[in-house]
Amino acid sequence: MSKVKIGLVQMTCSADKYENLQKAIAEVKKAAASGAQIICLQELFTSLYFCDVEDYENFKLAETIPGPSTDALQKVAGELNVVIIASLFEKRAQGLYHNTTAVIDADGSYLGKYRKMHIPDDPAYYEKFYFTPGDLGYKIWKTKYATFGVLICWDQWYPEAARITSLMGAEILFYPTAIGWATSQDAETNTEQYNAWQTIQRSHAVANGVHVVSVNRVGLEQNGAMKFWGGSFVSNPFGTVLYQASHDNEENKVIEIDLSKTDRYRTHWPFMRDRRIDSYQPITKRFIDEE
Questions:
Q1: What pLDDT, in 10s, does the model give residues 6-16?
Q2: Which DSSP category does 185 fall into?
């Protein structure tokens, strides 16, 4: 299948986990009604972004994967004949938690999960308190409509993750995300941050010759201290933005992409052909110090 329709769900969240799940399901149904075949939800969509504080009570938000949320989404996927990408807070075992995305195929089958590899620790993003780094490696899924990889939020900034996932055969890179601006920041800083965020992801599209789909949350959280900047977007394999959501509103958008573009761009701009894999051993070092 050369052409596939991608659904992006950019939404606000509340403190009610069940309410958020039902809202996401309603948005999935809306995207499916508009023709979407693969639908991506934002990072940790069943809750507010709780990593703004280090609070042991927040561990109660976690669930097993597969578990209650994937069960509900599998039913919806099977009924609507759509693929769903669902980012959830995973409880793996007592005292062991991950930031994880589940992938559900169009027949409702659970295909597997990816655990976020790069875990940030910044003011209002205290993810190392909650999440153990992923140990499943990078993953791709061969679904009814396309073969794709999923990376999560902070993974966006690492070309190594995008490269490896692309080399495994991903035709699309999906990035469920939760990133925002401190409301105390000035507009110039906000613009610079968003542009850097989008540019690094578009560069992954160019370097690897694949479509990139990034889905971010939107709205004020943390008692008004953080504005999640939305701005969800789709890039073609040469970095052209096919769609970009607003910074302020909930949006449900379906975009058709042409997977045959990968071969066209990789042929005319043969970055894959000219890779010098014999010279890349130093990339595994933390830093290259002078001898």
A1: 999 999 999 99
A2: S
